[in-house]
From TrEMBL:
Gene: gad2
Cofactor(s) required, per the database record: pyridoxal 5'-phosphate
Enzyme class: lyase
Gene3D superfamilies recorded: 3.90.1150.170, Type I PLP-dependent aspartate aminotransferase-like (Major domain)
Protein name per its UniProtKB record: Glutamate decarboxylase 2
Amino acid sequence: LADLLPAMDGDTKTMTFLQEVVDILLAYIVESFDRETKVVDFHYPNELLQMNNWELQDEPATLDDILISCRATLKYAIKTAHPRYFNQLSTGLDMVGLAADWLTSTANTNMFTYEVAPVFVLLEYVTLKKMREIIGWSDGRGDGIFSPGGAISNMYAMLLARFKMFPEVKEKGMSSVPRLAAFTSEHSHFSIKKGAAALGIGTESVICIKADESGKLIPADLERRILEGFVPFFVSATAGTTVYGAFDPLIAISDICKKYNVWMHVDGAWGGSLLMSRRHRWKLDGVERANSVTWNPHKMMSVPLQCSALLVREEGLMQNCNQMHACYLFQQDKHYDLSYDTGDKALQCGRHVDIFKLWLMWRAKVGKSSLFEAIQHHCNLKSSSLYLPQPCFPQNIPRSGAFSPCSFCVFTQPQHTNVCFWYLPPGIRYMEDKEERKKHLHKVAPVIKARMMEYGTTMVSYQPQGDKVNFFRMVISNPAATFEDIDFLIEEIERLGQDL
């Protein structure tokens, strides 16, 4: 390793080593899109620990050993680009985004000042402005930042809402403000409560509002709870809930927030990318009324992880809320426009360059409407190929689309590309006792998922929701997925569950 650059005469060895690494990566990319390969070569943790020497040693390894470690790491990695990987909201692998990620790592700089990241800072500026225009804010005015994921973006929004109402909290802390209350749907992401805990507001101050059967927040319940007690300062509406993919009624929520002078945030981490779709952006009608919006291009837009933006309607608020005037970074007598030194409005000091992946993909694809088409592709797979019977468990429903008569939708008319369904194996299909059937059904998805991972052929997630027992949640966000891959998933579930 001592022979690699910046060692003298290290050019040849360095280039040879890096080329071998690139060869490993390229082979993995090709393999990831090959349907004949496994999605995962699964081993239990103790097995995987014993199969390879993962411990850190006291002596440096050789370059050959390093290459072996690279191959082993990818051998046991989950192939999230595989067309039959339906497990998470973030799937797929975009080649332009990947190239941008390689360039970003090579540049190896920090986003806190224009001084050390001039091009990246400008690209963040123009891209955030474009995203604000798409939201519907006049001339793209406002502010924003790329953060390490939607959970942090949501926490930023809560931090800004509190500061806007009680600016003294920055210096004096929570003892200087009354007991606050934040409001969000019972189907919202757990990051809202996590943010409240991190900011010292407390999870008990997050009031969960009832959702209807499709997962949408009920505005009447929101208004009722706002009037009940503590000082309301923050409402988080969800555009694309994690499990159901539901879109809260933003216009009705914004009317309530305006009436009671409460900050309105839209968590569009999952569904925000539908703003790029001419056919589906109506699901976010009213988003332009929000004070802040979370939007994760690393989900529906297939930008490589991580890429999450917080967009803020009020310009300057982030700076006032977060700045600490560190004189060794943010000198006031620099020779350029200091507004491009964005680090003081962030909670982080070191901030990864997340913008280049999104910017380069946008540059490469929007001219040909590829980003729009990719989003429409996901929606088409959901709406055209997937029809499941309603959750009444009838016994003889003819096969429709990809689904067998033993698969039943958790709710009707999915709003996004989340498809939630139960599979009834033969052993419980004709049980007459509803409670007994429900008890057994709860155990079905975990068993099938475990078998699925051991075979490694496909992956899909499962979970309960409220009073509903475990069901499968298939997420369609991989540009490589086809109708045939969805057929394969369902057939695999049936194959793995036929003896249950």
